[in-house]
Amino acid sequence: MIIKQPKKKKFGWMPNSTFLLKIMQSNLAILAINWIFQGMRGMQSKELSFRILFEIIMIIFFYHFIFINIFDLWENLLFSLISAHSINWLFNTHLWVCVRYFEIYRRNPDSLRVFLSNVSKQIEGISWIDSAVCIGSIGDKGDVNTWRSDIDLRLFFKPGVFNYLKMNFYLLYLRTQALFTIIPLDLYAYNHISFLDNFKKGEGMILIKDADGQIKINYPDKIKQIL
């Protein structure tokens, strides 16, 4: 099994200054930037709207029930915001995906294989998920090939309010599970399978679930493996 050096973390904006670039790609900066944005730039409206609403609810909870008798108005608001944002970052984002860029990081590929296999079987039995794929290096090559690999899992919403809620809480569940089992899970749910059009040309994927057969019909050349 290959143990390769961590690749450099890339952001949407990269400075021309070598000094600033080195700072941005430091371990502390990677975590800080991830804490601020929490992968929201990669989310579509159904996932993003829930995430913002969920954080607002947590801010209100902290504001009215935790810090109400400890701080004054603005301190209460600040600590409530920081607390809610930090909890969302830990339990509803991709912490270990960021840690992959650290020199010290290692993760046994077998653990990723087991996690992906278990989640795939779970998704097969969930009626409110019609479509799911694994992309990235695992999707393209069909297996976990390095100790720095991550799992790029993509789910797709079915119409309806209840499906909207169930999917978003399922994302929270999977991310929390990945947090405690130290699995670098890069997980998003998209509004529609047409988002697969944004994949890089020639990039493959593992097909986990395709209940209505639309992925096979529309993206047959991208499917490298079917679980």
Describe this structure in words.
- This protein is an alpha/beta fold.
- It has helices spanning 18-24, 27-37, 45-66, 73-91, 95-99, 109-124, 136-141, 161-180, 214-218; strands at residues 131-135, 151-156, 185-190, 205-210, 223-226.
- A five-stranded mixed β-sheet has the order 3-2-1-4-5.
- Helix 8 (161-180) links the parallel strand 2 (151-156) and strand 3 (185-190).
- Helix 3 packs across helix 4 (73-91).
- The longest helix has 22 residues, at 45-66.
- It is globular.
Instruction: Indicate the low-confidence ranges by residue numbers.
Output: none
DSSP, total strands: 5
Q: Helix count?
A: 9
What name is given to the CATH topology of the largest domain? Answer: Beta Polymerase, domain 2
Counted up, domains total 2
Calculate the terminal CA-CA distance, rounded to whole Å.
22 Å
Q: What do the pLDDT scores average to? A: 88
Please tell me what the overall shape is: globular
- What's the arrangement of strands in the largest beta sheet? 3-2-1-4-5
Oligomer kind: single chain
Range of strand content: 5-15%
Helix-strand pattern:
HHHHHHEHEHEEHE
Major β-sheet annotation: 5 strands, mixed
Assigned CATH architecture of the largest domain: 2-Layer Sandwich
